[in-house]
Amino acid sequence: MILADENTDFLVIGGGMVGLSTAFQIKKKYPDSKIIILEKEDSLGKHSSGRNSGVLHAGIYYKPESVKAKVCIKGSKRLIQFCQNEQLEIMKCGKLIAPQKIELDDQIDYLFQRGLANGANVKIIDEKEFLDRVPYGFTASGRALWSPNTCVVNPKNIIKRLKEKLESKGIIFIFNSKIKEITLNNNLIKLSSKLSIKYKFLINSAGIQTDRIAHKFGVGLNYKIMPFKGIYWKLSPSCPLKFKTNLYPVPDLNLPFLGVHVTPDLNGNINLGPTAVPALGRENYRNTENFEPLMTLDFFKELANQWVTNKGGFRKYSTEQLLHGFKPFFFKAAKLLIPDLKSDYLIPSEKVGIRAQLFDINKKELINDFMVEEGKDSIHILNAISPAFTASFEFADLIIEKIKF
Ligand SMILES: Cc1cc2nc3c(=O)[nH]c(=O)nc-3n(C[C@H](O)[C@H](O)[C@H](O)COP(=O)(O)OP(=O)(O)OC[C@H]3O[C@@H](n4cnc5c(N)ncnc54)[C@H](O)[C@@H]3O)c2cc1C
């Protein structure tokens, strides 16, 4: 909490994994600098960074020339190292990617080549090895891709520890504070608490609200965020089907979603999900909570427009996904991964997250790669979808390279 107006070298908007890791790396590069992190909630982890699958991805899916490919593997190694140094738990359980339809079998070779091009450790395995690893899993062709370096962590523990490390280095957190006014000419932000902060450089890492702040800087005007809700289910404790590793379907590589998957977590749960259902608001985690009628209307208008013009790659997926919000349809999708699954084995999970998915308003496309744009004395992390948690430290270094300080 601050009690008086402040001057700072760096002002970071948003205490998610991207803001925290960027602040961490800035402090390394500019040890004498003053850094303030502004967080609108009363604590960290209320949005994506505290609500994700906790999977440290191993760099398989991404186009080799993409930013995601550049930062995922190195970022994962750095986050694993951070967890080890800080004695935070990591489950080195690996991950399988299996085709749910025979015609998707050639995607295994494609993903294998892509993984190799990105420097990932991947191996194509046969049905025997697949069933040894996931006795209750399904591969339509008898083949699967094995990624031994995929891990599972507890994201909330990681951000909690990062906050402690940042505070020990003198970084100031301001909670419960919303931006009321931005005066670009003299780099001044007025907060809802009536206090002001004057900054030399601002980092906008506000997750699902980033575009709204960027627009105030005249940045990213061709883009807006479309929120996709990720609902999870879990296997009931009495379910006899056990999983010690992640099981993912072969995804549609034209979309930024990986499909409903099986993920064991550090609390002993076997989670299934997340879906990618159009959300009724950017923070609409449950029912009508934080319902945004205009935004919802806009989302469905974009979806309808995609059907009418027959353009835009996400219309079929999003429409299908609408049904996945209902248990019978989710169960049907999950059964493709686990043929012996019974409806009774699926119980609701308290886990739910919303993806801050960037959309190109002119091209009518979802943006697949990370995207960062510069503004006056500021940088705006417009698209920090998965695997931004995994990649955060390496991604932060890329962000910092662009800072003119
Ligand atoms: C369902 C789901 C599953 C996922 N699974 C994985 C996974 O397994 N592995 C992986 O690597 N990634 C995964 N991701 C992606 C990952 O969670 C995100 O890429 C990452 O957390 C983004 O971090 P962030 O800091 O950009 O956003 P956030 O964590 O959302 O942080 C942004 C912060 O900004 C704050 N804020 C917003 N507006 C303001 C404002 N005006 N003023 C001050 N503060 C503000 C918010 O309160 C929030 O704390 C998943 C995401 C979802 C939704």
Could you name the key traits of this structure?
8-stranded mixed beta sheet; 21 strands; alpha+beta; single chain; 6-stranded antiparallel beta sheet; binds flavin-adenine dinucleotide; FAD/NAD(P)-binding domain; D-Amino Acid Oxidase, Chain A, domain 2; 405 residues
Describe the structure in your own words:
With 405 residues, the chain is α+β, with helices and mostly antiparallel strands. The chain has 3 domains: 1-89 and 152-222 and 368-405, FAD/NAD(P)-binding domain; 95-148, no CATH class; 226-360, 2-Layer Sandwich (D-Amino Acid Oxidase, Chain A, domain 2), CATH 3.30.9. Helices cover 30% and strands 26% of the residues. A hairpin with a 4-residue loop joins β10 and β11 (188-191). The longest helix is centred in the N-terminal third of the chain and has 19 residues, at 67-85. The chain is globular and about 65 Å long. The relative contact order is 0.19. Residues 13-19, 38-41, 46-49, 51-55, 57, 178-179, 205-209, 213, 230, 274, 353-355, 384-390 line the site of flavin-adenine dinucleotide.
Rg, nearest Å: 21 Å
Total helix count? 10
> So what's the overall shape?
globular
The low-confidence runs, each spanning 5 or more residues with pLDDT under 50, are none
Strand content: 25-35%
Major sheet size, sense and barrel closure: 8 strands, mixed
Q: Please name the CATH architecture of the largest domain.
A: 3-Layer(bba) Sandwich
- The total domain count is 3
Gap between N and C termini: 26 Å
Give me the secondary-structure category. Answer: alpha+beta
CATH class of the largest domain: Alpha Beta
> Which fold name fills CATH's third level, the topology of the largest domain?
FAD/NAD(P)-binding domain
The number of E-state strands comes to 21
CATH superfamily of the largest domain: FAD/NAD(P)-binding domain
* Mean pLDDT rating: 94
Small-molecule binders: flavin-adenine dinucleotide
**Helicity, as a percent range:** 25-40%
